[in-house]
Amino acid sequence: MNVLVVTADDPQARALWARFYKRLLGDLVFRHASSVPEALAQMRAELPDVVVSARETGGVGALEVLQRVRGETKLREVPLILLDEALLGRLSPSRLEAILAADAHPADVLEAAFTLLITNGRFREAARAPHAPSDAGHPSRGCALARRHYAPRGREVKVSGTLEVMSLFDLVLSLTQKRNSGRLYLLLAGVEALLVFQQGRFVHAEYEQETGETALLHIFLEAERHPEAEFFFEPSPPLPQEGMTLHAPVQELLLKVAVALDHRRNVAAPGVQT
Asked: What positions does the domain PatA-like N-terminal occupy (predicted)?
């Protein structure tokens, strides 16, 4: 997704970047313009998928941003999210526009972006995000951070294979010992899972709607049940602090996982004393 945020408020821009990046990672192109002339120049140079405009940027209000964008033929069809609740009574948004509060949570801005893109048929991958219709007509069960079919499509994949060849424990230890940074994707019985590494540390795990240690445990549990699962690892930029859901050392996390898995095995095995 190519996103252009128009705001002179750097903390607001950083908060939006962190939320969009947490969801999309390498599938995100995030641009920031701190003035309206700069924003228009960026839009003319490369059309964004969606524009987010603050209530006021350099003395120019969100409504004027809308008018300037719609006044240019090339930019008329660009979806716009206007962060100014005062416009709710003054403007009837078209299918290409959404109005939110000036202090809207970045998660709400992200969902508004997906809604605009899906409504206008602009972004097929957006339709695979959580709460959006999937191809089968029901919510997607995949990983929220970076949707894709399991084909890297030209990405720099460093490791790939199935868990029949290398267990998830061995794979994780190999990646951490080499101090790798990147994203490990797994396809577990048709459901995507994601582990994010930063210089050999776990920093994020996601499985279905779970994140953090709960997701990490379920990923290892499902990996044990499905040794045929496919995986691939690709390098990626650092995850922002706001996106990190795992903070304990790798060995501590793996010990927790091992103890939990051993407990589940013992509970599942009749006649075994624990």
From this structure: 160-264
